[in-house]
Design goal:
Strand content: under 5%
Radius of gyration: 21 Å
Distance between the termini: 36 Å
Structural class: mainly alpha
Number of helices: 4
Largest sheet: none
Mean pLDDT: 87
Length: 95
């Protein structure tokens, strides 16, 4: 249970870290002029968009275990909530 306790937080933090790492790689490539800088002042927007495009498939592959743990955590919460609602509905029907 403790490994799944913070699964959503862990996945979100790792996803953000992967985005930051992707941005750092894109920034270095722009600094070295290995990739185009963009047009007129769009350099920052260009780098952020490129980092998002790079980090999305990487997170899909690299963060599979964390995503599955988060999905299990969410499913357990939904099931507990569903059971509580059914129990409450049963109590109201008996009154």
């Amino acid at each position: 249970m403790s490994s799944q306790k913070y699964a959503s937080l862990r996945y979100t933090a790792l996803r953000f870290g992967l985005l930051v790492a992707s941005f750092a790689v894109v920034w270095v490539l722009c600094y070295l002029r290995a990739i185009p800088l963009g047009a007129n002042g769009s350099n920052t927007v260009w780098m952020i968009l490129l980092a998002l495009i790079i980090s999305a498939p990487l997170s899909w592959v690299l963060l599979r275990k964390q995503r599955d743990a988060m999905a299990m955590q969410v499913a357990e919460r939904v099931e507990r909530t569903r059971e509580r609602l059914q129990a409450n509905a049963g109590q109201e029907d008996r009154v």
